[in-house]
């Protein structure tokens, strides 16, 4: 289903999500702030022409520029408005009927001596119905008058945006006696006449007067809340004003969450090169496949006509070459990236705004929890945070985060605070996992570092190229990448202290603790010294990776939000491995982690701590204040969960294979959701099947999960080729990667100059 002309849809169709949130058909509507509205309308002149209903729209429109405006103008007269700071002029001109006076005013703008308004909003009819008591003669005169005005509007539409506002329905039961002749039947007749005449006038013209008919749909849902049966309630006219702002400003401001009326962005030079590369990979793979197929046919078992026996070929099937694996991976990746581009850069599929309700978040949570418990199996090992358990932990957290994103639950602060803990738990596992590996293995070689960096960053680098987004846009990957390098630097710097060395001399444990204290001191200093942090990451080439919208503030904010949790993960790993080495914990199958008494006390403390944190998070009133406390207290719920999950032996001995499966592709799920499950860079929802929300979610989710799984396999296959174990070969590959990024930087600089 093609999105079509999203401007046309924005002006003519949509539905309410809940009571006040308007959802245009097929596209997303941006909620403009005062500063954005001013930036869009700077040096612009806007004119509203019509009756009291248009006056209502005028006031709602100027309140988007200045919310302090009060509706104190003359009711039956012209009302000027000016914002001198942005040189914006908005005028309301009182012309309640489509007559000669209105025609003369519009005609004056078509003459060269008078400056034309940039936006003209016109509409009138109810006064004609009222004054002439709904007579047919008045309707006939209305048709004549609008026929004479239409060519003038068309002429203005060549250089200005002209909108004809259709008449909203009325709530006839509430109309006063003097307005009883204004019926919905009469309004429909006037609207039909206006649409027919304006459309026929613009049939052979490039410019077109845009018919603003969506207000009729909005009024049908809300007119019963009207104070007098004629004028719309404030929330409805505010929606109309916001639609008008989206129609004009989206193509200028290009907001991410405002897909309506935005043209498809042109392909960049880097995107064109990527397209050519993937096309050649697909062609190359098809050629090799055809060659292999022909060879297979030649060597295929043939039937002996005399004996009827099958003879086996003498030649064995050759091993798959590295080139074929590469082409196969890039062929699949090219097809997947085409889907990414079509979903979130081309105007092919529809996009819709998110709308949060408690049921849309909590019902899916309960559903996946039941599924997860249903697929319970025994673990291969019963150690604390064993591989199956950590995969399970990543899996259910990722599923909760996905539901959180698609349901728009970030607007509900208690849910937001709990999701912040899940993100922190991912980083906690980063600290725990990498520290454990380096501490136990003592492997600080380049191969290990390159393998981790490749697996973390491959998909994001490809998406940066294909989707034309900066690296920092996918903030979680830069976050775990930087923390991995910090962990590596902390442990690899002289003196290298590992478990084998520390077992020989206990003083080395104090040396490692001293390293961790130094790390904590650096984290504390950078978290309270924004200037120093920004200077470090503003140096080239780091600035190219961590800048977003021209500065590194977003990166500082993301880093600061979970600044201590990786350190907590490293410290927990150190303490746990020390206790394990000294056999102070029992990790046998079915055995509690400590003695029964200690286990019960720790379990009680963990449950109380877990619930206490949840109560605190649920009582949060201010997001900024809660975010300030979050880095220091999030570890409480994380440690409580680990102890609850691992102290009882029977719980530690089982895991959910359902959650663990998703945990193995959790990174790919987190990144892929940006473009092929959500839309407009996570701000909206992708609509593959319009009109059937549940079916759409099922279909898009199935494709999304399959794609994430496939990308995980592609990444693993390419990692074996791009990052070989042989040091000399690895050095050559690193030089090639350096050349690739140098070329990418060169083409990026060319793009920036052309823009």
From TrEMBL:
- Any one annotated GO CC term: Golgi membrane
Compartment(s) where it occurs, according to its Swiss-Prot or TrEMBL record: Golgi apparatus membrane
UniProt topology in membrane: Multi-pass membrane protein
User: Which residue intervals define the domain Cas1p 10 TM acyl transferase in the entry?
Assistant: 253-734
One GO BP annotation here? carbohydrate metabolic process
Question: Keyword Transmembrane helix: yes or no?
Answer: yes
Keywords for the protein's UniProt record, in alphabetical order:
Acyltransferase, Glycoprotein, Golgi apparatus, Membrane, Transferase, Transmembrane, Transmembrane helix
The answer to keyword Manganese applying to this record is: no
Q: In this protein, which residues make up the domain named NXPE C-terminal?
A: 22-72
Please name one Pfam family that this protein belongs to: Cas1_AcylT
Q: Which InterPro entries match?
A: Cas1_AcylTrans_dom, NXPE4_C
Q: List residues traversing the bilayer.
A: 269-291, 325-343, 355-375, 396-417, 452-468, 474-494, 506-526, 561-579, 600-617, 659-679, 685-709, 730-750
Q: Which family does it belong to?
A: Belongs to the PC-esterase family. CASD1 subfamily.
Q: What is this protein called?
A: N-acetylneuraminate (7)9-O-acetyltransferase
Q: Which organism is it from?
A: Polioptila caerulea (Blue-grey gnatcatcher)
Supply the source organism's classification: Eukaryota, Metazoa, Chordata, Craniata, Vertebrata
Gene from which this protein is expressed: Casd1
